[in-house]
Design brief:
- By secondary structure, the chain is an alpha/beta fold.
- It is built from 15 helices and 19 strands.
- The chain folds into three domains: 252 residues, FAD/NAD(P)-binding domain (3-Layer(bba) Sandwich), CATH 3.50.50; 136 residues, FAD/NAD(P)-binding domain, CATH 3.50.50.60; 153 residues, no CATH class.
- Strand 1, helix 1 and strand 2 form a beta-alpha-beta unit.
- The chain is globular and about 70 Å long.
- The model has no long low-confidence stretch (mean pLDDT 91).
């Protein structure tokens, strides 16, 4: 009987296990399956941990989770695994087009994922051929064409391994290394190297007379901000349910100041209020079909490319049509669709490109956030950049499918990923309510945005002194790093990945990207090594695939493709 280890049981691992069981049942084949997961709630991973606080919100609209479909009944090994509902059916979701979109806490998704896993586990644990091992895998060794999986307490052998481990910590940046070295000499300074788990900040929630620096100005910063300020001293209150206008009311004085900062200081851009407004930016089915064909034509071609015009022009074709159709909903202009397309290409090629149709980023951060909130509400004319960002979000799933495992050179892959990352300020934006909370904390003189754009930073025995372009300064005795590590394989510092790299079992597709894999998810082994049967799905394969951070991609066709390939190629020989 073939033996398979699945390492990591987050959403991808869960869907991989389901897809595998479906394919095995179709082939009327049984294998030995061992699942390794160190979390308390298999199926969730750390991101969707069901025990995390309600202040950690999903940043995708609940209605968009329609992509997490129901699991059909599975007949495996003479047993029946009952069907499991889709996410929307599970939570009895109902919403009209004009109702504001809902963004539930991440622990709600965690409950769904964990229950979905448990519905599998209660049947699978009846088989001797299935084990769920609660342990962290530290090494995978290749020995006599077999894979030895090691934890602190186990050493077992398998024919195949599937890695679905999600986010891995990386070597600290030079700045963080310097901070760590410096504060080692001072007992009164505190540095948190990562944002999650968010409960690590519990002792800070009700501290007083404290100034806390937050490195980063993205989604993780908002999680930190919300967790620290929903406390015994105050809370948020929505005073206008139509706009989510919010105030922070203080029960008593805390004297806490939060000081976020980033390299560019640009805020996240909220998603549209509801489905009705969101549909302003939706490409037609025909436009998406053409877009898919154009991207696939390049991704499957081995002819050398030296730019990503194929992508920027394809996006610009759709976004220019959408912007023209907005008419009185957008900033007034007399330009033709061709002229708008040219502006879009210029902006995609150069983030500093300016035009009166593109929102001026040089106004105050507070006013910039308010302006984008008003665009998201549909109460002021929409700027061209806001339009492009929302169109990009609608095109992302098609892009991710069409461009993964592209045959173009690594530099082009890196450029496509870089542009997609740049778009995420808009396309992965938070709900309006999150940005209203940011403004509420500024109004309450808790969140200080005066140092948000690339401050000069010096560390002393007194803490981190931030100085802005006005030569104003502020001192922080606590620093929180909320910047999420990029999935750069060569920088990952977890024992498992370092072990695989050192043994030349895996290699990056590019020095700045992740593991190189085939279209069915298997690692491309260096030619000097014997072939090993390790598959990788998810964030560590960034570069071979794109779109690795989206929850919907965890339930996508890539996982099904791996399961089908595994059963077809590995259980029949």
């Amino acid at each position: 009987m073939k033996q398979l280890a699945i390492i990591g049981m987050g959403p991808r691992g869960l869907y991989a296990l389901e897809s595998l069981l479906i394919e095995l049942s179709r082939a009327n084949t049984t294998i030995e399956i061992h699942v390794y997961d160190a979390t308390s709630h298999p199926g969730t991973g750390n991101v969707w941990d069901r025990s995390q606080p309600d202040s950690n919100w999903i940043n995708i609209t609940e209605r968009a989770l329609v992509g997490i479909e129901a699991r059909s009944e599975i007949r495996y090994n003479n047993h029946i695994i009952k069907a499991f509902p889709s996410y929307l059916d599970w939570c009895h979701f109902s919403q009209s087009k004009n109702e504001p979109d809902s963004f539930p806490p991440r622990n709600k998704m965690g409950r769904y994922l964990n229950e979905r896993f448990q519905s599998l586990e209660k049947v699978l644990t009846q088989f001797k051929s299935f084990k769920c091992i609660k342990a962290e895998v530290t090494h995978i060794n290749v020995k006599h064409q077999k894979l030895q999986v090691l934890t602190h307490a186990h050493q077992l052998q398998y024919d195949d391994v599937l890695l679905t481990v999600g986010h891995q910590s990386t070597t600290p940046s030079q700045q963080l290394k310097e901070w760590q070295s410096h504060i080692a000499a001072y007992n009164d300074l505190t540095l948190f190297k990562a944002t999650y788990p968010i409960y690590q900040f519990k002792a800070l929630q009700n501290t007083t007379n404290t100034t806390i620096g937050i490195r980063g100005f993205g989604l993780a910063m908002i999680d930190v901000m919300r967790y620290l300020t929903i406390n015994n001293f105050g809370n948020f209150k929505v005073i206008n349910p139509n706009t989510f206008e919010t105030v922070y009311y203080k029960r008593k004085v805390q004297n806490i100041t939060l000081v976020p900062f980033s390299l560019d200081g640009l805020p996240l851009v909220p998603k549209p209020l509801n489905q009705c407004i969101d549909e302003w930016y939706a490409p037609t089915h025909q436009e998406l079909d053409v877009f898919k064909s154009e991207i696939e034509a390049v991704s499957k071609c081995t002819q050398e490319k030296d730019n990503i015009n194929f992508l920027t022009h394809a996006i610009a074709t759709i976004a220019s049509r959408v912007f023209i159709d907005l008419q009185d909903k957008s900033i007034s202009h007399t330009l033709s669709e061709i002229e708008i397309k040219s502006l879009i290409i210029n902006w995609l090629d150069d983030e500093n490109f300016s035009h009166n149709l593109i929102q001026d980023q040089n106004i105050s951060t507070y006013q910039l956030i308010q302006t984008y909130i008003d665009m998201a509400l549909g109460v002021i004319p929409v700027s061209l950049d806001y339009c492009i960002g929302q169109v990009w979000r609608h095109c992302q799933p098609t892009l991710y499918r069409a461009f993964s495992h592209a045959k173009v050179n690594e530099t082009i892959i890196e450029k496509v990923i870089a542009l997609d990352e740049r778009s995420k300020r808009y396309s992965y934006g938070p709900p309006i309510e999150s940005m209203q909370q940011v403004l509420a904390l500024v109004d309450a003189q808790i969140l200080n945005l005066d140092f948000v754009s690339h401050p000069d930073i010096k560390v002393s025995h007194e803490g981190w002194t931030l100085k802005n372009y006005k030569n104003e300064s502020i001192n922080c005795s606590i620093m929180i790093n909320s910047v999420l590590d990029a999935p750069k394989l060569l920088d990952v510092d977890t024992p498992l990945i370092k072990n695989l790299l050192q043994n030349d079992v895996i290699q990056p597709i590019h020095s700045k990207l992740g593991i190189e894999t085939t279209t069915d998810g298997y690692v491309k082994t260096p030619e000097s090594k014997s072939k090993v049967h390790i598959a990788v799905l998810g964030r560590l394969a960034k570069g071979s695939v794109i779109g690795v951070d989206a929850i919907l991609e965890c339930f996508g066709p890539r996982i099904k493709k791996w399961a089908k390939a595994y059963v077809t190629k590995r259980t029949t020989n």
